[in-house]
Amino acid sequence: QVQLAESGGGSVQPGGSLTLSCTASRTTYRSYCMGWFRQAPGKEREGIAAVDEDSTFITDSVKGRFTVSKDNEKNILTLQMNSLKREDSGMYYCAAEAGWCRGNWPNWGQGTEVTVSS
Questions:
Q1: How many helices (H) does the chain have, and how many strands (E)?
Q2: What sign for the dihedral angle of Cα 87, 88, 92, 98?
C-alpha cells in the first residue's frame, strides 16, 4: 500500500508563508493522483488541491494564495501557501489514489499541523 509522508507544517504569523511537501513511497502504479486536505478543529475535512497527470484542482478559498505542484517522477506533492490567514490553521493531510483523480482516496498520510497566529 502507498505510504504518504507530509512535512513542512509549523507556526506562522498571519500573512506569512509555509511550504508543505508530501512524498509517496511504496508506489506500484505508473502514476498517482495526489491531493491535500485540511481539517480545522471542530470542522469537517475539506479538499484543498489535487493533481494528476492531466489536471490540477485547487479550491476557491485558497486560489491566488496557495499553489500546488507535483513531481510526477518522484511522486512528491508540494503546497506553497502564501498570505496565510488564521482560518488556514488546521491539520493538513496528503492523500493519494492510483491513476487519475476520482475522489476515492484510499491512501492517507498522518498529517502535518499548520498554525496561523499572531
A1: 0, 11
A2: positive
CA distance linking residue 83 with residue 73, whole number of Å: 29
What CA–CA distance (Å, rounded) separates 60 from 67? 12
53-112 per-position pLDDT tens digit: 999 999 999 999 999 999 988 999 999 999 999 999 999 999 999 999 999 999 999 999
Task: Say how far apart CA 88 and CA 97 lie, in whole Å.
Answer: 25
Comparing CA positions, the residue from 15, 16, 9 lying closest to residue 38 is 9
CA distance 104 to 116: 30
Residues 6+ apart with CB under 8 A from 73: none
